[in-house]
Amino acid sequence: MAALRLRNKILFPQLCRAFAGRRCQLAAERRDAALGPVSRFCPPKPSCHDWIGPPDKYSNLRPVQFHIPEDESPLEQKLRELRQETQEWNQQFWANQNLTFSKEKEEFIHSRLKAKGLGLRTESGQKATLNAEEMADFYKGFLSKNFRKHMYYNRDWYRRNFAITVFMGRVVLERVWKRLRPKQKLSSS
Fold it and tell me: I want to staple 24 with a disulfide (CB 3.0 to 4.6 A). Which of 16, 33, 125, 149 is the partner?
């Protein structure tokens, strides 16, 4: 997966430059940024808690830096990896969704202003906007068009959260069992 992502980072911008010029390159850079590392924030070494970073500029979600304990059991590791994978999946979905939303919103505004015979700027130089009723048409259409995508996202989100909850329960039971289990005494002979 990492090799594929690396190959796409190198190959995709080159293809964009060859076929479409600067506009496609900017879109590819935004997409790559959305798929790349979310935050460069790194918590201090002696920390023993998860850290929540600032919101990502593409997905608007706060990334989590997960603490890795030294005595992490295989079950705890699997839970942490599942949480990390879910976070990355969620970040990617919302980064792509927000990028699509912004692009379609701009196209909608441009087409409506053009249909009215207005420019992108008013006489005073401010950006021309549409009223709330016109924007409501866009929001309704966007939600209707993406209904299935959101339905599948919600279904997968609930599945992932259920799996995480089950693993959390198993980790708690494992920790309780370790505490209650009689300690093995070292016999001196």
Answer: 16
Please report the sign of the dihedral spanned by the C-alpha atoms of residue 41, residue 77, residue 32, residue 149. Answer: negative
Tens of pLDDT along 102-147? 999 999 988 888 888 777 776 777 777 788 888 899 999 999 999 9
pTM: 0.67
Distances (CA, A) of 44 to 13, 37, 50, 88: 35, 18, 11, 22
Q: What's the one-letter identity of residue 170?
A: R
Q: What angle do CA 139, 144, 150 make, to 5 degrees?
A: 100
Average pLDDT over residues 150-159: 96
**Measured between alpha carbons, how far is 140 from 42 in angstroms, rounded to an integer?**
40
Nearest-angstrom CA–CA distance, 29 and 12: 10
3-state secondary structure of 127: strand
